[in-house]
Amino acid sequence: MTQLDSDYRWHHKHLLGLEELSADDIRFALQTALGFEDVSTRSVKKVPALRGKVVANLFFEDSTRTRMSFELAASRMSADVLNFSSKGSSVSKGETLADTARTIEAMGVDVCVLRHHLSGAAEQLSRRVKFSVVNAGDGQHEHPTQGLLDMFTLAKRFGRDDFDFTGLTVAIVGDIAHSRVARSNVHGLIKLGARVILVGPPTLLPRSFADLGCELSNRLDDVLPRADAFNMLRVQFERLGGQAFPSLREYATFYGMNSRRLACAKPTAIVMHPGPMNRGIEIESAVADGPRSTYLEQVTNGLAVRMAVLFLVTSAK
Amino acid sequence: MPPMRVLADEKRVDDLVQDLSQAVCDDMSHARAQGDSAKWAIIGIRSRGDVLAKRLATTVKPDLVGTLDITLYRDDLSEVASQPIVRPTEIPFSLDGLNVVLVDDVLMTGRSVRAALQLLMDLGRPKRVWLIVLVDRGQRELPIAPDHVALDLSGSAAHRASGSQTIGRGGGELADTVAPDERVTVKLKPTDSEDAIQIHPARSASTSSMTTSTPQGAGGT
Asked: Does domain A23-142+299-315 have CATH number 3.40.50.1370?
């Protein structure tokens, strides 16, 4: 375990992105998540740390797994959980985000977990309210808890107990341009010392990522022998107007992870996926269900990471 | 400011630990003589009780050894000044039906022990729980009484929790009194560089930055 300075303090009341966290902050959050892992395996799967606090899940975009993960994380910490989704709420009656936020603030909410289709929505919200805001995905900007859980999974698979990723190479493959998962991973991985290679078709791979210290490649086959982990991004049909690549079949041919490609990778390399998977497109079923896939571990780890995040933002002074 | 006083050096800490080991061994033989065949676990409260528990285990040889991290069960999370650090609880066995010896370094308010008991109950249903502490410095805020204390600084007998037994070399000596605003700190290797029991003078505002080293506060709660 990393020895942090004894005067280290977590001072983030909000978790908006990994871009604004320091390497120490990220390591502290991941280390804290280690302390939450056993909560999910004991006979009473609950700790009293957030007893009497209220966590509101405010989801303006469809999401089942992230919302369920946050809901379970909050419940396991004994918080009361409110679920808002844009469908069936006053949002569909024309209420603005600011008004919805003020309404739930008036109810005495302590933490708001926000998923929104606009980049920057979480930051906007955090400026207007007294409660803590946790970004659960804002447009194409960031999805910090996904970034944290991906790094947590990497650390566990590669035995990096100190969360120092020096010497590890991670390839993030797919629609980099529209991916908040990619953005959060890039910020976090580089801070922890990993080398990041972004792989995707030229139309979905902005050159600006090179400025963040990433290597860019349009050919997955070239990158195969070099990476320790492949994070296969979901093809987001809902964000692509069908313009980005000629056909799904072509995408799968050039950028899909399959058994043949995995055989060319390092024998220790792992395949990650943030879910939900498009089997047969970015990941072949045989790979997704194989021993080198971390897909389900990521879901389990997400719970510990989200408990840690809820604990940290509510304990920030 | 008055200097820090050393209440026990390495040799005396070793004697006190041996006294505690003997007390636990006596409890075990007593229980076995009564026909109690339940397994024994020694469980320490982080971040010195766990070290003490492991040390006791080398002589007591219980069936199981574990560590509790009570950060998530503390009742003062919203008030503490230092950064609370959550670490894993390490109990890789079922507590159901076990005889549990709960170990902490310093007993003061009783709040850590309350939190530890709540955590134990969330992990299972032990048959019986004993509480063993190296130092009882008094100032209880909850009705918690240890089963064995190696060094009792809780003051006059009237202040001592009834029913607790002070064993060995504790109490009695004039040097072993502690003022209410002084801090009692237990140092144990390998977490610390030495074995010692120390009394630190009352904190002044200018020295408050030196208190952040352990999340539980080394003074015991």
From this structure: yes
Torsions phi, psi of A81, nearest 5?
A: -120, 130
How far is A291 from A306, CA to CA, in rounded Å? 25
pLDDT digits (tens, 9 = 90+) for B91-134: 999 999 999 999 999 999 999 999 999 999 999 999 999 999 99
Chain B residues close to A46, C-beta within 8 Å: 122
Contact A307, A73 (CB under 8 A): yes
How far CA A162 is from CA of A27, A147, A187, in Å, comes to 8, 17, 18
ipTM of the complex: 0.84
Q: Is residue B220 part of a domain?
A: no
Helix segments in chain B, DSSP class H? 10-33, 49-60, 111-123
Nearest CA of chain A to the CA of B46: how many Å?
12
* Alpha carbon distance B115, B69 (integer Å): 10
Full-model pTM: 0.90
Can you tell me the distance from the alpha carbon of A14 to that of B17, in angstroms, rounded to the nearest whole number? Answer: 46
- Provide the shortest C-alpha distance from residue A317 to chain B (in Å): 9
